[in-house]
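Fig. S4 source data, part A: sequence.
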Amino acid sequence: MSAPTDELPSFSRGSGMGGSLPCRLIVESAGSSPRECWGTLPDLIALVAALPDEQKDAVLDALNACPKYQRDVFEEKLNEYIDKTKEAEADLVAVRAELEALKARKFPVLMTGEAAELRALGCPRVVPWDFVADNAAQCLHNHGQSPERLAERGGLAQCEMVAVVEGRKWRRMTNEESTRRLLELLAAYEKVSVRSPEEKRDG
């Protein structure tokens, strides 16, 4: 149940206020007759909580026409709802910030004594963190260490990274071969990472 924001909802005398019991809400709009809406108390609380402050105050003022116990119950439930909504929004902001931090986090590519050659081949110095961290089990299998520990120790050489991401044991590769394959794997990873959840699910 919802009412347009340009309408002013107010409670009629005798509205029910008990849990899932139906409550009556009178929606008054300029130039038209009052319209009666029915809904559970949670419905009405959600409706009122979404209103601009001035309309919210008007609703609470209208509750003065209701018996005191009804007004007290509604205000208490409304405040609880608003508090929980704010907590949920704060949690969502924190989760989004954490996700952004993870996106910004990078895993280092360990440049060997042939760093100049690797740079000339286009080998990256860092890759997205999840590119490697999503293969944590293979990191442990190949190197006996977590992605976090490997990163602390300088990262993985490009051929080691290719083996981890491909889910296989390490084997020797030339710089040209390993760099080319690493770039291919990165391109495939980045293509998937920008797809929507629905696209990823549909393959």
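Fig. S4 source data, part B ends here. The longest strand covers residues 22-28.
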